[in-house]
């Protein structure tokens, strides 16, 4: 079998494209890398905004803020959107600090309020016990000494404890709040006030050494200075059954001496 010889008049078959001398192969394009998911970063941002809005709510704001911090850290570790993750982290951290500070402030206020209430209660108890002790001493001194052989019967206090306590409360309201006689009685017997019995409250308002005209004048000046009310409006407020409940004569005295 003979091999055909190449024809001298024909050009040889050209080499493939990438084998031709003096040429370069076209660059190979790699498919774009898939973008990492941003779910955690978005969640961290949303939770961080919510935590920032609830930052002044004690405990709840701190819980939401901690959740936002955890989501932001996970998003950063998984190389998700750094901007959203960092923003959520900052907002959540601020919320945690704000919530903790609010809770601490409320706790301090409650503690100081309880301490003040205890001090006031102790002062009132000591003040209410003083008249009873004085009455005991008076009754003991008034006993006749002509019959020493007879055992003295235990003396009862002239004023019941509840009556004495109501009187102390009435004096306190009269001195600090310049209340009328009717206003004092309502405050002492109110279920939202002192809750004394009607008898104890009546004893207190009948026994208290208060200057009702002076109380009415003090109330009138308070209304004039703090609310800039006219004399007629002040008088109506002083005598109103929904206001101070002073007597008309006491209100007239206050208006007559309002500018003294």
Q: What would you note in describing this structure?
A:
This protein has 260 residues and is mainly alpha-helical. 63% of the residues lie in helices and 0% in strands. It has nine helices and no strands. The longest helix is centred in the middle third of the chain and has 60 residues, at 82-141. The chain is elongated and about 105 Å long. The chain starts with 38 loop residues before the first helix and ends with a helix.
Helix coverage percent of residues? 55-70%
- The termini sit apart by 147 Å
Number of helical segments with 4 or more residues:
9
Strand content: under 5%
Q: How does the SSE layout of this entry go?
A:
Elements lengths: L38 H15 L6 H18 L4 H60 L19 H17 L3 H9 L8 H10 L4 H16 L3 H9 L8 H9 L4
Helix pairs in contact: 1-2, 1-3, 2-3, 3-4, 4-6, 5-6, 7-8, 7-9, 8-9
Outline:
The protein is mainly alpha-helical and 260 residues long.
Please give a handful of descriptors for the protein shown:
single chain; 260 residues; mainly alpha
């Amino acid at each position: 079998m003979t091999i055909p010889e190449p024809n001298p008049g024909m050009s040889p078959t050209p080499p493939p494209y990438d084998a031709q001398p003096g040429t370069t192969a076209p660059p190979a394009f790699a498919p774009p890398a898939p973008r990492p998911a941003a779910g955690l970063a978005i969640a961290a941002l949303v939770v961080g905004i919510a935590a920032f809005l609830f930052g002044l709510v004690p405990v709840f704001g701190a819980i939401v803020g901690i959740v936002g911090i955890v989501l932001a850290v996970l998003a950063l570790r998984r190389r998700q959107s750094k901007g959203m993750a960092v923003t959520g982290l900052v907002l959540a951290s601020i919320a945690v600090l704000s919530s903790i500070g609010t809770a601490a402030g409320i706790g301090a206020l409650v503690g100081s309020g309880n301490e003040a209430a205890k001090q006031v209660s102790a002062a009132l108890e000591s003040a209410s016990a003083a008249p009873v002790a004085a009455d005991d001493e008076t009754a003991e001194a008034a006993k006749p000494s002509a019959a020493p052989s007879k055992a003295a019967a235990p003396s009862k206090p002239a004023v019941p404890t509840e009556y004495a306590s109501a009187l102390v409360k009435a004096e306190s309201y009269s001195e600090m709040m310049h209340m009328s006689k009717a206003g004092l009685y309502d405050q002492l017997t109110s279920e939202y006030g002192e809750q004394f019995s009607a008898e104890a409250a009546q004893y207190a308002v009948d026994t208290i050494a208060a200057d009702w005209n002076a109380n009415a004048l003090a109330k009138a000046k308070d209304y004039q200075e703090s609310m800039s009310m006219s004399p007629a409006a002040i008088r109506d407020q002083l005598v109103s059954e929904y206001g101070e409940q002073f007597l008309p004569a006491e209100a007239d005295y206050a208006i007559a001496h309002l500018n003294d």
